[in-house]
């Protein structure tokens, strides 16, 4: 007898869509409705078969694995805890507690993603809003260096360009959509205006927009590949809008000026508020990367790249960020949680992960898991474990357990490690 | 577990004890009759010569949740130099104006406080607030839920259906595991989403025909009475910080004349038009309105010179502060419900505006005659850190210290000040009222703020000193539910706390209406919105009616 569970939240990306219907039977997912193809994969491709932990490739029971992992952490002078973003906040809290206990460095995938966004926020602040305000009010949208058409597949329909809300009953018809990007992306094809910025030139375009907002007149006709006339049109549209919203992605955070790009955008949005209400929402990737920032901040004061080595939290991106810790060989053991740095990090950092002892908690196979000294096959939050995820706009959403597999959660394993390591 | 605190001078205003020497007996975390104790088996604390008070009760502080956490993230520079080192099983973290959750719990505990109220959470992010509260040990807690700009409530007001608002509020408090109704700039935050604000109680709220700040206040006061909530409507009025604030504050109080209400951080709302764009302090007028109406309570929101982080749900206020102060600005509009903003600030004694705020707060403390109706807060971290309470206590108890500090503030703030004429000095009894007994009574927390039989054994014991700041900064002993948690101002134990919430009954028919409303108004499913009691560690309902 199958059962259909309604209002299930999808843990895949920062949209955390919570309108998914999942049909389950006997511990298996049969069908998923309303999810995007990525979300379908989360539920349909999940392998719920029971698995034992492994130590150096050999299956062992859970107690042995916990003891092995604790021995690695106890022997380490400089452990690194990394990942967090596809886990639930309950587990993230345990990960920080473990880092505090061990005097470890802890970092999330933010450091290779929207870390610069956090630095920009610290520098200038951030005028933002929840996605419902975008849906209900926004009449001008600007997607800058992000491409939700391919990365956040339901974003445009559910929250932004096409979404129908209180003041936008006609959805797309009630909005003007701009895309600023280096190439004509899928999102750009769906926009009213595509402004093609030359690679690496976002900062000067943003500065020019600020100048135009203040009524200045650039003495050139083209900036960063974009005609000033087009930028002027955008500024006039924003100054006259009801509620303008920018979404920004790694086209700003991971190019040339990084946090300076983002700070310039956040400042532009703040300054636009003298004319019309404007907000900006970072297009966060992993399902609960926003939660990782939140949890680290409420426990350590800082959103990522935190070292507890001196017995208290210190924040230093570029020093305590995982790529840098590994590439400098500053970490002598690593606990990797819900992420795959072995596949995604620069070679110089990823290679070190193959040399130092690693403890990996993951619900599926990964490059990192393949090299794990101790591998804990944990449950997937949102599939066979319940928890909490923070949407890209910082709204917390409960993740359901749609099937029961009996696998321990990340929270369980981290809790056991906290007990098992030397006090 | 049995405990006797013997021979201390007990300041327990709820039970009329003003420093009389008495014993306090504790069994299983509660205060009990002496006769029920086996003294041979009880742990005895010799309190001879010491001052024994109930644990402190915080009625208004911004400690956890979305806004506070944004403030933490925004201010790395504020954390540095304020680190707290891990000590055994006690967590490390940072202090400063927006401490991390564990550190907040520890610092309150070390200051003799045992109960706190988080002053503002938008319903949509209440789940976040409760997650942080679980990571804030050693305190019992409650959460105020912002409702002054809630679309469903404003729609009910517009349609003239207050009973719909009543049932919705009951549902909302249960769904958020909230403790009280909070109003922040009613109507003004909604108008801010259109780039505007309200400035008068009868200004229209955009999109809600016939709705005004006055009608929102009146409706929620009526709802509060109908539901019999343990606390009263907790009001942050319109025009905060503006030269019209004293006038509209008094007008708001008159609107609710004779009805129970709490006006928070009153200092920030007690200004009139002054020369050269420096607001004039109107403590006398506002305090007179408080004195005239025994149904109301207030807290002061005293500013403390030094670093602060302003953070409120008052979006337009925070924007105007950003325009005035420059620098970093955080804003967060929350769909269908609320908003908010953050601006870091430094209060300087040499700044005429800041200095006026400082002395206006103290004037309110000294001009409100009944200590049972004025409570100690700094509106942490808006006016100053909660760790500054001992300093404020000294200012209230020690006129010479007050005069000395007053002499050092900007001359324009001294001009016209009432402070030099106010000779009143608070007594230890008065301090026990404004930091314990009064707030607990206003909150309707029957087991808090006193040391009578049945009270929770939350107890702070101080060695009396001439320097009242030093005295209150480091209690000799602090007990939470009968467990010694701090000694000589140093944490010695970590215990979990309760989260008080209310769940007044309501007509279940409202749920269908709310469910239909959710389809239109929210990007989160109705089914995923409510925080369940099982989601909140130590959840404890408090009776209504």
What does this protein look like?
- The complex is a heterodimer of chains A (423) and B (545).
- By secondary structure, chain A is an alpha/beta fold.
- Helices cover 36% and strands 22% of the residues of chain A.
- Chain A has 2 domains: 51-111 and 287-420, 3-Layer(aba) Sandwich (Rossmann fold), CATH 3.40.50; 115-282, Dimethylsulfoxide Reductase, domain 2.
- In chain A, the strands form 5 sheets. Chain A has a 9-stranded mixed sheet with strand order 5-4-20-19-18-6-7-16-17, with helices on one face.
- The radius of gyration of chain A is 22 Å and the shape is globular.
- Chain A starts with a strand and ends with a helix.
- With 545 residues, chain B is of the alpha/beta class.
- The chains are: A alpha/beta (423), B alpha/beta (545).
- β8 of chain A pairs parallel with β18 (329-333) of chain B.
Write the layout of secondary structure elements.
The complex is a heterodimer of chains A (423) and B (545).
Chain A (H helix, E strand, L loop, with lengths): L2 E6 L11 E6 L2 E6 L3 H8 L9 E2 L2 E2 L2 H14 L3 E5 L5 H14 L2 E4 L6 H10 E5 L1 H7 L2 E5 L3 H4 L3 H4 L17 E6 L4 H4 L3 E4 L5 H12 L8 E2 L2 E2 H12 L3 E6 L1 H4 L5 H14 L4 E6 L6 H12 L5 E2 L6 E2 L6 H6 L5 E5 L3 H4 L2 H7 L4 E5 L4 H4 L3 E4 L9 E4 L5 E4 L10 H11 L3
Helix pairs in contact in A: 2-18, 3-13, 3-18, 4-12, 9-10, 9-12
Chain B lengths: L1 E11 L4 E11 L2 E3 L10 E4 L3 E5 L1 E6 L4 H9 L1 H4 L3 E2 L8 E2 L6 H10 L2 E9 L4 H9 L5 E7 L4 H8 L3 H15 L3 E5 L3 H5 L20 H15 L6 E3 L8 H11 L5 E3 L7 E2 L7 E2 L1 H10 L3 E4 L6 E7 L2 H11 L3 E5 L7 E7 L4 H16 L6 E2 L13 H9 L1 H9 L3 H4 L13 H16 L15 E5 L4 H6 L3 E4 L2 E5 L2 E2 L7 E3 L7 H13 L4 H4 L9 E3 L4
Parallel strand pairs in B: 1-4, 1-5, 6-9, 9-10, 10-11, 11-12, 12-13, 13-16, 16-20, 25-26
Antiparallel strand pairs in B: 1-2, 2-3, 5-21, 7-8, 14-15, 17-19, 18-19, 21-22, 22-23, 23-24
